[in-house]
């Protein structure tokens, strides 16, 4: 493919800017926020978010050689005009969305510390900021789980908080 001939080939591509995401909630596209338990030195992420058709929220690490860090995600999607209830599917294994998806389940417990941002993992009395304690939060063999969800017909928004022991991809079928 010749660069500059993208309109002729039908194989358009885009360059997505990498973002640093640390221990402060990072607003990504205004409707998707991610807060890692702590920074990953030398790590950058690409983010994909869509609120139309098949809804998507994904955070992809550029480096896969760094240790895993638990995180909280806040996803806001518009409720479809049909008022159909959402069913969130996820895939935490690269490449995301390749058919190896699972229905997201509710977490066994809520590891957040009650901070106003609603996205901070507790560090006492149990330290949920490490993946070593993710087995206390995640059901079975899951790698992500739903902490809470709410739909408000009055503003037409669906909001989900998700805990994940690793970076991942979320969507609606």
* Average pLDDT figure: 78
Count up the domains: 1
> What share of residues is helical?
under 10%
Strand order of the largest sheet: 1-2-5-9-8
Spell out the helices and strands N to C: HEEEEEEEHEEE
Topology record:
Elements: H1 6-9, E1 26-28, E2 32-36, E3 45-50, E4 56-61, E5 71-78, E6 89-91, E7 102-103, H2 134-137, E8 144-152, E9 157-164, E10 169-171
Antiparallel strand pairs: 1-2, 2-5, 3-4, 4-10, 5-9, 6-7, 6-10, 8-9
Report on this structure.
- It is a single chain.
- This protein is mostly beta strands and 173 residues long.
- It has one domain.
- Helix content is 5%, strand content 31%.
- The protein has 2 helices and 10 strands.
- The strands form 2 sheets. A 5-stranded antiparallel β-sheet has the order 1-2-5-9-8, with no helix packed on it. A 5-stranded antiparallel β-sheet has the order 3-4-10-6-7, with no helix packed on it.
- Strand 1 (26-28) and strand 2 form a beta hairpin.
- The model is unreliable at 1-16 (pLDDT under 50).
């Amino acid at each position: 493919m010749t660069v500059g001939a993208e309109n002729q080939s039908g194989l358009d591509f885009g360059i997505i800017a990498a973002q640093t995401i640390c221990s402060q909630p990072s607003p990504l596209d205004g409707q998707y926020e991610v807060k890692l338990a702590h920074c990953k030195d030398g790590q950058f992420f690409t983010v994909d978010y869509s609120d139309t058709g098949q809804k998507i929220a994904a955070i992809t690490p550029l480096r896969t050689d760094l240790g895993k860090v638990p995180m909280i995600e806040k996803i806001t999607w518009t409720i479809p005009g049909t008022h159909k209830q959402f069913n969130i599917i996820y895939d935490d294994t690269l490449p995301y969305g390749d058919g190896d998806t699972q229905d997201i389940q509710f977490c066994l417990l809520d590891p957040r510390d009650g901070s106003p941002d609603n996205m901070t993992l507790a560090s006492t009395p149990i330290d949920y900021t490490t993946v070593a304690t993710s087995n206390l939060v995640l059901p079975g063999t899951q790698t992500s789980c739903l902490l809470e969800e709410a739909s408000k017909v009055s503003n037409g928004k669906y909001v989900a908080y998700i805990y994940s022991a690793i970076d991942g991809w979320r969507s609606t079928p």
